[in-house]
Design a protein that fits this description.
The structure is a homodimer.
Chain A (H helix, E strand, L loop, with lengths): L6 H8 L3 H8 L7 H14 L5 H8 L4 E6 L5 H16 L3 E6 L4 H13 L4 E5 L6 H5 L5 E4 L7 E5 L1 H14 L5 E4 L6 H17 L6 E2 L5 H11 L6 E4 L2 H13 L6 E5 L3 H6 L4 E4 L2 H16 L7 E4 L2 E2 L1
Parallel strand pairs in A: 1-2, 1-3, 3-4, 4-5, 5-11, 6-7, 6-8, 8-9, 9-10
Antiparallel strand pairs in A: 10-12
Chain A binds a DNA duplex (16 and 16 nucleotides) through helix 1, helix 2 and helix 4.
Subunit structure (chains A, B): Homodimer.
InterPro entries (chains A, B): HTH_LacI, LacI/GalR-like_sensor, Lambda_DNA-bd_dom_sf, Peripla_BP_I, Trehalos_R_gpbac
Organism (chains A, B): Superficieibacter electus
Chain lengths: ~325, ~325
Amino acid sequence: MQNRLTIKDIARLSGVGKSTVSRVLNNESGVSERTRERVEAVMQQHGFSPSRSARAMRGQSDKVVAIIVTRLDSLSENLAVQTMLPVFYEQGYDPIMIESQFSPAMVEEHLGMLQRRNIDGVVLFGFTGIRAEILARWQPSLVLLAREAKGFASVCYDDEGAIQTLMQRLYDRGHRHISYLGVPHHDVTTGQRRHQAWLTFCKQHELATVSALPGLTMKQGYEHVAQVLMPETTALVCATDTLALGASKYLQEQRIESVQLASVGNTPLIKFLHPEIVTVDPGYAEAGRRAASQLIEQINGRSEPQQIVIPATLS
Amino acid sequence: MQNRLTIKDIARLSGVGKSTVSRVLNNESGVSERTRERVEAVMQQHGFSPSRSARAMRGQSDKVVAIIVTRLDSLSENLAVQTMLPVFYEQGYDPIMIESQFSPAMVEEHLGMLQRRNIDGVVLFGFTGIRAEILARWQPSLVLLAREAKGFASVCYDDEGAIQTLMQRLYDRGHRHISYLGVPHHDVTTGQRRHQAWLTFCKQHELATVSALPGLTMKQGYEHVAQVLMPETTALVCATDTLALGASKYLQEQRIESVQLASVGNTPLIKFLHPEIVTVDPGYAEAGRRAASQLIEQINGRSEPQQIVIPATLS
DNA sequence: CTGTTAGCGCGTTCAA
DNA sequence: TTGAACGCGCTAACAG
């Protein structure tokens, strides 16, 4: 708003030229210690901070990144975003948030907007169905979360590991009839991989395979548990804790206490409501941190797009 | 990144001067219909969009606003933010998100950063304990949510109305022993007002007043319900649905089915997990929309800071 | 090592 | 009604 001071002012106040101030500002070499210190002192004293827009105009980067979540109230995505924000802020990036509501059209529209705005980078949460040509332009400055795609940077959870850990734990506790409640295979990670890992474990240990893949809402969990509860079932693995919440509601209502629930994802909500559920932590917090720093590295050209997998830990 | 075209290019391509393009861009008067149409056609055709940073540098506004939530995973705040985002995007504002974690120090620090960045405005969620002199500088471009302060714009929920509605409903259903589980009074809105409204209703109808004000976490709800459950208690009003979730967990565990729960806040989670709970909708969605548009109006100088109250509706 | 100069893309005079 | 010139705050190229 009002007359903020500029490098010109700082220059005048410290008796040097504009460009020297600029050099100090950007930690460039070629400035004597004495001058640098003097200039820095003046900047401190006046609480000077350079105009973002002016820098952006020269440098082609306004230091803004976008985080596109599927839903603001996704428990798991929240945990990742929570650790992501501080990283961005520390590095001077402004993170703007966008909700995709699982709509590819909406994502494409937003990506278009982001491009027109010349945004620096994007973190895109678990998403499929976006046209390749749209995504392609973002290849150097995009990090996918919980999804991977050839040539793109991504941070994924160890779906197989998570399910294996869960199954092994249940198996060790003596369970031999472990049903599965999951997500359809068009969701490659949460859907296909987790289901497949469960199938594999069952095969290896010669267990019967009773499963359903209704989707990822609580309601779907609630409505479809019954399908996978056989008389002999003693445990149920859920692909997500949201599903587990739905399932657990059903079990409570039916007063079924003989079934051990287990799920991927240890959100605070489920830990509180149902501490008896066995969970593995897919590493949401770590995933957020990694995604943010990976994106920043890419933006600065310090790293090529990489595929990162976060190990799951029993919780 | 690469050579985006500028107004200069558009000017050349449409055979006019830069300033004419600028005028068209800003819908200024003083441009003939023919020229305007021609220029607009060229802009359309080349998908031109002006550089944000360049405009910002001239106009002192980069069209960025900040939304400071207490927690990313707050159920109620999520609902408000969800309706807020589209409003900002429609008006060309980039909403950046910040989590305060209920820490006044953190908010002050972030406000400082936002000021250095020359942000246009801030939506600040339910917060007290920030020094007045800090907040003062933001007075023209700040909207408080779920909190009010003299001289500041705010969007609040109708705490009294919500509780009254709830109580009346319970009373009509024949309940005469209605306990209360709430939040300490240092939280003026969710704490004091709701509690006071409950007290008032009880006085008017000569009901006994059994209550506890543990805080606003589920855990606190869970741990303190017992205190307010008398043998004669038939209903329990909770100040927030988070508290209600905690309380309800306790009731389930104790197999207590004789107590009707009621709470302020109809988040999808509680509607699904406990549809039997009587809830009022404080109007989260509407609050988000109003807050966003109020902020934009203020930024553009089209409105003075106002105090808005959203009516509660039975849900 | 440092100051001077020239733009970046846009809005805003001021003449024409 | 329009265009040319200037400057916003900053960085980069070039002098000194």
